[in-house]
Task: structure prediction
Amino acid sequence: MVRKYLSTLISWGRPGKTVGSDARLMQELDRKRLPKHIAIIMDGNGRWARTRGLPRAMGHRAGVESLREIVRTCTELEISVLTVYAFSTENWRRPQEEVDVLMDLLSEYLRKELDELHRHGIQIRPIGRIQELPPGARDELERAVRVTGKNNRLILNIALNYGGRAEILDATRELIKEATEGKLHPDAIDEERFSGALYTRGLPDPDLLIRPSGEMRLSNFLLWQLAYTEFWVTDVYWPDFRRGHFLQALVDYQGRDRRFGGLKI
Ligand code: IPE
Ligand code: IPE
Ligand code: MG
Result:
């Protein structure tokens, strides 16, 4: 147990298993046809820890390193928007101890990374029912939003206390409020107007959704926005997810035939 634990600690510093060579994948990529918006369900932290005989909290902590690497890669590739699913409206069902770990990790991530994120021109936007998060996490988020608000190299949406259904309900309430105040005619509510009331207002829908750890479900993520998004699923757990896996997803994406219900001319 102790040896297993130590070897895990040591291996954290090393890159995870990559698919092919990163350099070759980089060469394969057409830099002009990269997705503008990528969404990731950061899943599998618990299973990653379990396979190593570690507490789940260690899996969550290890997952932060993957986030760092993927954010770095996005800025390098000049991706415009990255949306990561960090905590769902359903994740409150987990034991209080695990919820506390996740909230503390969020605060720690923001505290430690904010300067670097800011230096790289990253704008942080929390999406979800942020007002229901614990005050400590909320304070860090508010600071991050204030500091990075004018950055425009990469928009990093962090989905926290996020639910696709909750988002649709919140948008519906906002529109109904405007309508009852006489500022909006019901006939004026089209897809564009509705999108404009979502947490992701003003942003393009994701072109690519990545889900590590093999689950084939949305788990209440971006239900409206994913209507025509390309999916890429891997069995690799999020803490093992590295630049090479990300590049592989991008290469696969570039081979997709996106028709949006039409026909290829
Ligand atoms: C993702 O990893 C993190 C959150 C959902 C907050 P999990 O904790 O869901 O890991 P698994 O799915 O149990 O392996
Ligand atoms: C989705 O993962 C939520 C996040 C990654 C934040 P879950 O682990 O909560 O999803 P289910 O329960 O397997 O569907
Ligand atoms: Mg999970």
Remarks:
- The first strand starts at residue 37 and ends at 41.
- The two ends are 59 Å apart (CA to CA).
- The longest helix spans residues 96-119.
- The pocket of IPE (ligand 1) is lined by residues 42-47, 87, 91, 102, 213 (CB under 6 Å).
